[in-house]
Amino acid sequence: MQFMIITGFRNQNAAATYKRMREDGRLIPDGMVFKASYCTADLARTFQIFECEDVTLIQRWCARWSDLCDFEVLPVVSGAEAAAALLLDAPASTAA
């Protein structure tokens, strides 16, 4: 399953977070896979994509960074997967 984790920096201090990441790495537990990261232009938030089957690993990762960051964790699917779930990509039926 994929998760988007929206990260805000406590006290608007992104530098402290990036310093720890440079020194210690992402601190990701085994079983959690980093896919991508995007940062807002004002450096106020990041949007990270992870794959993980055990949500407690996500919780563990957030706890490791909670002194520097706030988190919003959202399970996500691709647009194509959402469309398929809503049957929007089903072939049009033909009228008899």
Automatic annotation (TrEMBL):
Kindly name one Pfam family recorded for this protein.
DUF3303
Q: What is this protein called?
A: DUF3303 domain-containing protein
